[in-house]
Amino acid sequence: MRIVIKIGTSTIAHKTGRLNIRISDRLTEIISDIINEGNEVVIVSSGAIGMGVGKLGLPGRPDDIAGKQAAAAVGQCELMYTYDRLFARYNHTVAQILLTASDFTNADRHGNFTNTVGRLLEFGAVPVINENDTVATEEIKLGDNDTLSAKVAVSVKADLLILLSDIDGLYTADPHKDSDAKLIRTVDRIDDALYAIAGGKGSSLGTGGMKTKLDAAAICLENGCDMVIANGSDPDVLYRILDGTEEKCTLFKA
To answer: Of these four, 61, 171, 237, 238, which has the most CB atoms within 10 Å of its CB?
Structure first.
């Protein structure tokens, strides 16, 4: 299988912005094992701004664009150093790709991107993709890596996109506010009713929420790619998703 795994800020970093060592260690170990089984994995990783906040010792995520860009510039170095160090333990080489919106709208640049990913996978490398936060001001203001990961999954013709977040999946209501909220196990189409139950923004260090995940699912379903929302606090969920045994997740079936 060709799998795109989106790792959210809340998965890889603590609320302080500092690296979540336990989860990142186990996550890279499992992804390495999945690759060793013969699968191809592309990672879309959030966390540059959040980890920059932690690295710089800031009290919180900056409110201004320049501050966010500065935090991203510092955090992206830390993020890639972390992936490089952790994957090297299992003899896997990582490659950094930073994208902007024009890399999807410009045919030549989009072709270069997809060709590069394809060749990296042929070489056995693990592409780690993120938005180029230091220049993509529109993404910092309004965007998210959920949509980016869906566009990447479609572009590289992935079989499956897995969004690792801080929630098990799509619920009938906000489970933090409604004790009767039920997890929706399978979705085969995106409609207004689903958007009606989607919440607002995500964690204080990230930019995503359930609405952005539904946007990502719509992109995937329209292009024949399955998508799963799962809780990244237990990295072993990746094994169970691929085995078809995970019950606490939402599968968007193309």
So the answer is: 238
pLDDT band (50, 70, 90) for residue 3: very high
Residue-wise pLDDT for 40-93, tens only, equals 999 999 888 888 998 899 988 898 888 988 999 999 999 999 999 999 999 999
Q: How far apart (Å, rounded) are the C-alpha atoms in residues 66 and 230? A: 33
Q: How buried is 22 (Cβ within 10 angstroms: 0-12 exposed, 13-18 middle, 19+ buried)?
A: exposed
d(CA 164, CA 227): 11
Closest by CA position to 169, among listed 192, 186, 153 = 186
And the tokens for 140?
């910092």
Amino acid (one-letter) located at 165: S
CB 169 within 8 A of CB 229: yes
Residue 210 burial (CB < 10 Å; 0-12/13-18/19+)? buried
CA quadruple 45, 51, 52, 56: dihedral, nearest 10:
-170
The amino acid at 132: N
Six-digit token pair at 186? Answer: 């399978």
Cα–chain center distance at 249: 15
pLDDT, tens digit, 9 for 90 and up, residues 132-165: 877 766 544 435 789 999 999 999 999 999 999 8
* Residue 209 CB neighbour total at 10 angstroms: 18
